[in-house]
């Protein structure tokens, strides 16, 4: 055999079809574990019973670490190892069906063959192939019995990510692009750049059969902290030296940039970027994965299941606590069994690649069993207390005097955190609410019992906490109540009109000093710029409510707005002789609309025109207008078009051509930016026919 190098026919098309890997555009065989694939060798001379095949992976393959397998041709498929079964033979070719075990290490294998009849011959290389997880195989840890869910969570390249805030949920499209170009190779090289691989490559590769191991390692690799990973986070509101997190429309560009730069972290990301990139990598490797958005998401830095927020006497939200409540936070769920915890904790597992807190000394998070979170089993691996707090923490709002360091509790809330937990529906572009999968109904006895159980497991019940408010502070009852009502459109470019409604809950008049502020924030509610402040002294008649209209002109907030379009409005009410009342509202302003029209039928390999229209809604000219377009199977790479400046109320219409390369429903994603509006996004489903 060594004398005549055999040529290998990998039957790329047939194997890809059988293994659900047809969407990869590779000349290399890509198959899934626990399932057979066919290979034909031409030029094999000796009798086949004398052939031994060798499949090996990693820097030092060995049988001990399950990174090397040797197997001859047998008559049946092996239950728990690698095997080869003869399909057919002709005078000088041999077709065999190779099977791998359902718990094989995933990655790029070398396949070679050796003749046992001649002692001296060295193995002849047959080439390489890539082995992935197999959610279609019942023996695999990632087995997903529902076909439609496999299609969505492994094979779908388009996603919808939910954002905004709990009062006003919005969404945007994302191109995961896990099958494009060399994304698979980039994902495999990501594994070889992890801290675990650098420390001990042999052990790391031997653990790559385990989805919980890979999920945890990749949650660390997607952020740049610790390991020069893929994306560098930035929540400052200033994104000089990189791309603003809200400008990306897909993971492909980010992963390609990381590779092109010699694996330097890509600037910049925020939570949805980390989650979207992790979705791409895990779907690419065959682990069913989706993005999850949690509204009013707690970041509990000190592990006491409580988030403290501080305000000064003027009502300014002070950026002095490590704890915070984000308008929304995006993480991942991946589907696999938990042999380490037991069957009741299998199914969806939370992974979070956003660098928030260290776990085991590095910025990684999960996998935390979603069932464990719901049941308050926060003592189970991995990082359950942090995820439990994200959806359940109690909130304490304090008045803080920077001069004296004295803090006074304004009020506490146990139902604020963890609302409208959202993900994209299977097979359609809709939102599905999964809050009930994370916790029992807010305010129910079961939910409070679960919270107590979690506190107990964390040792918080019996420990005196000097920073906690006293029961008297928690039970105090205010004399007035207040809320902000929206009185007009919430759109960038329009004045912001609100009404502060104050109600006197007592039967005698109350005098109230109201200190109001409005700040632009990032979506984590971190204050960035003060926009407006005002204070009024009011008398509220007994048991009556009064309304105070507030207008913040566009000209006042326009310069200060971050790309998140978020404003936090606060009124701190000092009631004479009573306790303070904090009224606040987080407002997300909508960008103006942008429209996509496909002019004619979209057919494979035929050009079709697309028109994108945008009308400048404000009474000043907008400049630096750029249109960015991407969409798998519709165009190659990313199209960037510079659009001329638009005068007040002027409508622009931009045309470009697409040449679709495959049939079926495809998504076109558009992002429009100019000096006054950041990242106006929309997407359109294009049905491509033959």
UniProtKB/TrEMBL annotation:
UniProt enzyme class: transferase
Annotated source species: Rhynochetos jubatus
Keyword Magnesium: no
SUPFAM superfamilies in alphabetical order: Cysteine proteinases, E set domains, Transglutaminase, two C-terminal domains
Record-given protein name: protein-glutamine gamma-glutamyltransferase
Binding site for Ca(2+): 392, 394, 442, 447
Catalysed reactions listed for this entry: L-glutaminyl-[protein] + L-lysyl-[protein] = [protein]-L-lysyl-N(6)-5-L-glutamyl-[protein] + NH4(+)
Protein family per UniProt: Belongs to the transglutaminase superfamily. Transglutaminase family.
């Amino acid at each position: 055999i060594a004398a005549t190098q055999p040529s290998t026919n990998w039957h790329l098309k047939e194997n890809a079809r059988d293994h659900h890997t047809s969407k990869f555009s590779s000349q290399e065989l890509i198959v899934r574990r626990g399932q057979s694939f066919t290979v034909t060798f031409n030029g094999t001379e000796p009798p086949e019973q004398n052939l031994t095949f060798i499949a090996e992976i990693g820097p030092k393959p060995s049988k001990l670490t399950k990174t090397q397998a040797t197997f001859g041709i047998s008559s049946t498929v092996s239950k728990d190892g690698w095997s080869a079964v003869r399909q057919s033979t002709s005078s000088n070719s041999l077709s065999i069906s190779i099977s791998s075990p359902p718990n094989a290490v995933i990655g790029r294998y070398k396949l070679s063959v050796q003749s046992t009849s001649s002692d001296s011959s060295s193995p002849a290389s047959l080439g390489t192939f890539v082995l992935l997880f197999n959610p279609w195989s019942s023996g695999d840890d990632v087995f997903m019995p529902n076909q439609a869910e496999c299609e969505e969570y492994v094979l779908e390249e388009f996603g919808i990510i939910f954002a905004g805030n709990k009062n006003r949920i919005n969404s945007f499209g994302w191109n995961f692009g896990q099958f494009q170009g060399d994304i698979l190779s980039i994902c495999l090289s990501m594994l070889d750049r992890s801290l675990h691989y650098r420390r001990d490559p042999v052990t790391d590769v031997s653990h790559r059969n385990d989805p919980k191991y890979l999920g945890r390692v990749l949650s660390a690799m997607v952020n740049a902290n610790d390991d020069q990973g893929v994306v560098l986070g930035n929540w400052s509101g200033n994104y000089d030296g990189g791309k603003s997190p809200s400008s990306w429309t897909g993971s492909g560009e980010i992963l390609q940039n990381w590779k092109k730069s010699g694996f330097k972290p890509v600037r910049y990301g925020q939570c949805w970027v980390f989650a979207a990139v992790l979705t791409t990598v895990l779907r690419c490797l065959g682990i069913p994965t989706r993005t999850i958005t949690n509204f009013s998401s707690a970041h509990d830095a000190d592990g006491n299941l409580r988030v403290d927020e501080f305000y000064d006497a003027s009502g300014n939200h002070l950026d002095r606590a490590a704890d915070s409540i984000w308008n929304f936070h995006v993480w991942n769920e991946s589907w696999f069994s938990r042999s380490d915890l037991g069957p009741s904790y299998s199914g969806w597992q939370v992974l979070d690649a956003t660098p928030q807190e260290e776990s085991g000394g590095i910025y990684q998070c999960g996998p935390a069993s979603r069932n464990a979170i719901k049941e308050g089993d926060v003592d189970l691996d991995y990082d359950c207390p942090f995820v439990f707090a994200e959806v359940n923490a109690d909130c304490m709002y304090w008045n803080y005097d920077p001069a004296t360091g004295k803090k006074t509790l304004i009020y506490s809330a146990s139902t604020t955190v963890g609302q409208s937990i959202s993900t994209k529906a299977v097979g359609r572009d809709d939102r599905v609410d999964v809050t009930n999968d994370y916790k029992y109904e807010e305010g129910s006895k079961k939910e409070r019992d679960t919270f107590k159980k979690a506190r107990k497991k964390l040792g918080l019940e019996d420990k005196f906490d000097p920073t906690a408010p006293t029961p008297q502070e928690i039970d105090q009852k205010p004399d007035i109540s207040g809320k902000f009502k929206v009185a007009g459109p919430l759109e960038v470019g329009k004045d912001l009109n609100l009404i502060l409604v104050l109600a006197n809950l007592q039967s005698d008049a109350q005098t109230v000093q109201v200190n109001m502020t409005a700040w632009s924030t990032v979506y984590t509610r971190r204050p960035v710029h003060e926009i407006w402040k005002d204070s009024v002294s009011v008398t509220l008649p007994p048991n009556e409510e009064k309304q105070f209209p507030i207008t913040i002109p566009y000209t006042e907030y326009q310069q200060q707005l971050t790309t998140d379009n978020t404003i936090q409005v606060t009124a701190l009410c000092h009631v004479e002789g009573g306790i303070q009342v904090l009224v606040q509202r987080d407002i997300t302003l909508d960008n103006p609309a942008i429209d996509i029209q496909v002019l004619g039928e979209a057919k494979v390999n035929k050009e079709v025109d697309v028109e994108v229209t945008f009308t400048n809604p404000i009474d000043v000219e907008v400049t630096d207008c750029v249109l960015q377009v991407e969409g798998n199977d519709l165009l190659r790479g990313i199209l960037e078009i510079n659009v001329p400046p638009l005068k007040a109320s002027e409508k622009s219409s931009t045309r470009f051509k697409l040449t679709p390369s495959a049939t079926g429903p495809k998504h076109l994603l558009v992002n429009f930016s100019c000096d006054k509006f950041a990242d106006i996004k929309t997407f359109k489903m294009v049905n491509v026919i033959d």
